[in-house]
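Q: How would the structure tokens look for this protein?
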Amino acid sequence: MREVMDGMAAGNQQPLFDALAEDVTWRWMGVEKWSHTFRGKAEVQGGLFGSVAETLEPGFSVQVHRILDAGEHVVVEHSGRNRTPDGREYNNNYCWVVRVEGGLIRELREYMDTRLVGETFGDDQLA
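A: Here is the predicted structure in token form.
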């Protein structure tokens, strides 16, 4: 996970994509409209990160605060400091609870400030 997050901090998503299992499950642990499950590597790359590419300016920033390794489960606390294409700041805090099996990410639960997401982006277009 350190390599994955170092890549993200440098603006490189490829280490994350390389670490995803083909059958990965990535869940936004939000409420109402901002709760969503992405099933499979293709949906994570195209659906989740495809929408990130459309809603945030290139060169997004990730700052890792801590990584806690508990064997099969890893917890990553990090922040994003970004801008939308129309110039608004989007600075959210995240906690990922990741299940790793066979060296690949099999499940990721992403906790974030869903109120901030809704205030910034409106209704979840993926719901």
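Residues 19 and 104 are 5 Å apart (CA to CA).

Residues 2-121 form a domain with the Nuclear Transport Factor 2; Chain: A, fold (CATH 3.10.450.50).

Upvote if useful.
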